[in-house]
């Protein structure tokens, strides 16, 4: 039972005023409790995002939101514009989420595009509800980045090999090039890569190029030959054959279906 409850129970009994020093101690203790509550909720959320656990991260997000909605937790306005204050807060959260997934060996080259895009959308938001929805999308986005790009399970040589591949995806590269970048044997790197990734370097490289091609087919009007060259596969016939092998669909058909789906979404909107 705290001092306020005691005072209420004593009712009309005349109680001498508290010494200023005691009031300062009580205020300080309350502030410490509020800070501890907020930081513990924030830590749980950041840990879940760093792990890429979307289910746990969403649950932690709602728990954190409940903490922040308490009257004593609400931030003191820093300007006459509440929406501007909220945007600043969400911007800070975007940075915290970004740094959290870096802890799980997600390289900034994978994070930058999503982080920048979210930053633009934060600035463009017109209402607090838009920012609330965007916060939830941020949680999901960063969890997805961890699932797709975390290098934590791999040894240093394999981590560096994957980064080298992604940084040079559109250029002619070989296992020998990747190994030379680390001053190690191509055979040693190939063995470690296959053991840890479960795929050969050449097939992993091909799949990454096909993934890039899929993204381009949804947004680009390039011919198949030009698109193939753009993703580092100059032989259009080989590209088409491998594209169908990996995706199950020829690139021309994939492009038509992607555009049709895009039009359908636009019409529904």
Question: Can you walk me through this structure?
Answer:
By secondary structure, the chain is an all-alpha fold. Helix 2 (20-51) packs across helix 6. The protein is built from 13 helices and no strands. The protein has helices at 3-10, 20-51, 54-68, 82-102, 108-124, 128-149, 156-167, 175-182, 186-197, 201-219, 224-230, 236-247, 251-268. The model has no long low-confidence stretch (mean pLDDT 86). The protein folds into two domains: 25-74 and 82-147, no CATH class; 156-262, Arc Repressor Mutant, subunit A (Orthogonal Bundle). The termini are far apart. 75% of the residues lie in helices and 0% in strands.
What key phrases describe this protein's structure?
globular; Arc Repressor Mutant, subunit A; mainly alpha; single chain; 13 helices; 269 residues
């Amino acid at each position: 039972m705290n001092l306020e409850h005691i005072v209420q129970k004593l009712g009309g009994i005349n109680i001498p005023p508290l010494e200023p020093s005691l009031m300062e101690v009580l205020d300080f203790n309350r502030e410490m409790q509020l800070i501890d509550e907020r930081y513990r909720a924030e830590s749980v959320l950041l840990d879940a995002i760093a792990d890429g656990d979307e289910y746990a991260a969403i649950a932690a997000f709602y728990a954190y939101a409940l903490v922040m909605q308490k009257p004593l937790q609400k931030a003191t306005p820093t300007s006459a514009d509440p929406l501007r204050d909220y945007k600043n807060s969400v911007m800070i959260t975007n940075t915290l989420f970004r740094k959290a997934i870096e802890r799980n060996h997600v390289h900034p080259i994978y994070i930058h595009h999503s982080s920048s895009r979210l930053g633009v959308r934060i600035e463009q938001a017109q209402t607090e509800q838009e920012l609330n929805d965007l916060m939830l999308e941020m949680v999901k986005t960063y969890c997805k980045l961890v699932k797709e790009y975390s290098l934590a399970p791999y040894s240093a040589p394999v981590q560096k090999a994957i980064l080298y591949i992604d940084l040079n995806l559109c250029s002619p590269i070989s296992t020998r090039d990747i190994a030379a970048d680390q001053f190690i044997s191509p055979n040693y790197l190939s063995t470690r890569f296959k053991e840890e990734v479960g795929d050969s370097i050449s097939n992993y490289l091909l799949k990454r190029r096909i993934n890039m091609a899929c993204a381009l087919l949804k947004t680009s009007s390039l011919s198949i030959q030009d698109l193939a060259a753009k993703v580092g596969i100059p032989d259009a016939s080989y590209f088409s054959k491998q594209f169908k092998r990996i995706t199950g669909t020829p690139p021309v058909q994939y492009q038509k279906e992607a555009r049709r789906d895009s039009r359908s979404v636009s019409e529904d909107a």
